[in-house]
Design brief:
- By secondary structure, the protein is mainly α.
- It is 53% helix and 0% strand.
- It has helices spanning 3-11, 36-50, 56-61, 65-74.
- The chain is globular, with a radius of gyration of 11 Å.
Length: 75
């Protein structure tokens, strides 16, 4: 999966946030809609699409979608 596809799938986890806000440098934890439930959805996305397990702590340690993507790819 490339970065743009990851961003698109990441954006699908949000119902109320405009899709134009989701870019590689989006600071996703600052979004009003960000929650622990969204983080759980991201954990499931990573498991399903990459076959890798990521923790909530690892998600919190990343600041942008691109950082998160790069972290997952490097796992």
């Amino acid at each position: 999966m490339d970065l743009n596809t990851f961003i698109s799938q990441f954006a699908n986890m949000f119902d109320e946030t405009d899709s134009s806000e989701f870019t590689a440098d989006c600071s996703y934890q600052d979004l009003d809609e960000w929650s622990s439930i969204t983080a759980m959805s991201i954990i499931a996305l990573v498991k399903t699409e990459f076959g890798k397990s990521i923790s909530a702590r690892e998600i919190r340690s990343c600041h942008t979608i691109e950082e998160l993507y790069n972290h997952v790819i490097s796992m």
